[in-house]
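Bump. Still looking for MFS transporter structure tokens.
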Amino acid sequence: MAQSTPAVPATEPTQKDSRRALVSSFLGSTVEYYDFLLYGAAAGLVFPLLFFPKTMDPTLGTTLSFVILLAGYISRPVGGILFGHFGDKFGRKNMLFITLMMMGMVSVCIGLMPTYATIGIAAPLTLVFLRVIQGLAVGGEWAGATLMAAEHVKEKNRGFAASIAVTGGPTGSVLATLVLGLFAGLPEDQFLAWGWRIPFLLSAALVVIGLYMRYRVTESPDFVKAQAAGEVHTGVPILRVLKKYPLSSLYGILAAAGPLFMQALLAVFMVPYVVATGAMDRQTALMMLTFSSFLHIFAIPFFAWLSDRFGRRPVMLFGAGISVVLVFPMFALFNSGNFWMIALAFIVGNPIIQASMYGPIGAFLAEKFETQDRYTGVSLTFQLGSVLGAGTAPLMATWLVGLENGHGTGNIAVYFIILIAVAALSVFLSKETRGRAARKATADAERAASAV
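Sorry for the wait, here they are.
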């Protein structure tokens, strides 16, 4: 006598579950990126002065700070693979709890760190270690938070839902630059003595709120359904991803690199750049970045919403076109020396150039992979794209702007256009992912009907 297959429990999320998942993903990502981007904001303004010898050339100190920044990006794919492995085998919720706790502890440690004057070479080495731990945590955070939001809603709304978690990035950037900018108004000696530390220590309060929200959220309905149906494997998810989705993974990595380069360029490089030109002081520049990041919070969901209506590929290709057209005018505004034009440059860069291609990225990557491989797949593609784009951005920009060909920021613009062209080609070669699950369900039903 044939054994009956156990019924798969109902996993349709209630409105309350969906709302709680969206809020939890948004707040958690905000806290994570507040911690992660706070280092980026401080890397060009504070760390070269405090964590390296005072006799060191300032340019070299800034470069080494950016190298440590890159170390955090390099460790992100490792964190993505690590947390993706357990997230695909045991669920999303617990992994997100752990990553948030790690980020908060590291930020507090940075805020309490002795400087080079106190412990010598141990200061930058400790900074490297803490930055690597940060990278591991963020590597597991982005994919998990994006999936928790996307997998708690109906498929037709997944672009918008995934973008809610993605907006944690600019929201964290707003908080980081706003808080650091407020303390940057202190006299120089006070800011360097203790003012820069307060934003890092404030992370503890944000983490408590984020952990509370994550404790209350339910596990991803998609994961629960896959687990009940016996689709969650006991093997190694990263090996399955590399074997099953080689081209999808490659296209995802290259599609993410271009917009992520612009994100890091604006958040890390351009503030010290405009300050060095004498156009404005560091507090004013940070406030400009903060305002553009605030607009970014609304621009990302807008472009994601467009992708729910018209598809991921059309919107992202449109964003690539906007990026190519506007990048040279953006740098012209940055080099104008005019207060209002520089403010406009930040707005052109963040909520227009960056958001137009970045808004749909959460759903674009998530829909490339099946549920049982999704955490690992999204982590791998996004974090490797982050290394290629965001992680190298400050170093590449520093090198390109210093080339002796006299083109300055024009060199950065050309490099960015190359990245965007590669990203656009990758999107063009990718299959449209909007409505993929519905199409698969229809095909399965037709095959079942024909077999009867």
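Residues 58-90 form the longest helix (33 residues).

Edit: fixed formatting.
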